[in-house]
What we know:
Elements: H1 14-27, H2 33-49, H3 53-73, E1 81-85, H4 95-109, E2 113-116, H5 122-130, E3 135-140, E4 158-161, H6 164-173, E5 177-180, H7 185-199, E6 208-211, H8 218-231, E7 245-247, H9 250-260, E8 264-270, E9 273-278, H10 284-294, E10 298-306, H11 310-315, E11 323-328, H12 333-343
Parallel strand pairs: 1-2, 1-5, 2-3, 3-4, 5-6, 6-7
Antiparallel strand pairs: 8-9, 9-11, 10-11
Amino acid sequence: MKNKNKREYKTGRDDIDKIIADLAGDCHSGDNVDLIEEMLTTIAKLGVESNDRGDLKLINMALKELRYASKIFTPYRKERKVIIFGSARSREDSDEYKMAVKLSRLIVENGFKVITGGGPGIMEAGNKGAGREASFSLNIKLPFEQKHNPYIAGDKKAISFKYFFNRKLFFLKESDATVLFPGGFGTMDEGFENLTLVQTGKSKPRPIILIEPPDSQYWGHWLGFVTRELAGGGFISRNDMSLFVHVNSVEKAIDEILQFYRVYHSIRYIGDKTVVRLNSLLNSENIDELNKKYANILRSGEIKLTEPLPAEQQGGEFLELPRLVMDFNRRDYGKLYEMLRFLNTLGN
């Protein structure tokens, strides 16, 4: 719904602004016509302000990629999805490849879909285990032409990106859990970006799982470095270690994902309020326990049960679900994760 208090965003030319307003109305008839108008205004301002063809080509391609990927994902927005990251070089006979196939198959059996980077190795294993119907792939166009693996190639849910930043956005935007198998620079990049975004609250809470075969020390060595150098050196909070879990079996990874969403459903920030939606109703004793354990992550007040807030009602956002409201400090996300895991042990 249009924010009437928002300062008007215009080109500064009445003739262009009128054309934009008319075109926006012709393109879109819903409550979001103001956003269509703003995007058209941005394009017009680019034309007026910039003569750099390189800048215009980049913005044009980025916008086209965002539009197309949004179109593909829109019909599946209500279905939970798991991203599977890992090495493109993992062989089909490797333990991690076999684990990725099994994990994908089992998580699909539990109602999730699977997103991979679309290439070979662990990405291929993810799509293989999930099957074409339950698979998405977000490929990246590279000079050596990485192609979609045969388990997703040709499917409408196989998307190719020119820009890594768009690809990364959709990995996080369209998924509900992250599973990281051993891998190279790309896996490290994706893993650290996931951790950075949840640590700073730029991505909503999700299970982040580091998985490796029982005889592997890949994540064990990584964990030692993070514990010793990052947490031990004060570069991250000790509570940030709660943002991820380390497992060496597919079953533990599946349990972690399912348990994360046992009671917790989703989160929404509205002004200074944090709303936590629930899959089941908590009783007063449960609420008291939460307040005793996690009062230190609140700026003021306490954790309370609430009806849907007006902003949620306007958007029709999960109105049937019970929810909690609190004045979370938007800083201690590691402790918030601990609270969500404790929350998932409560209820019926």
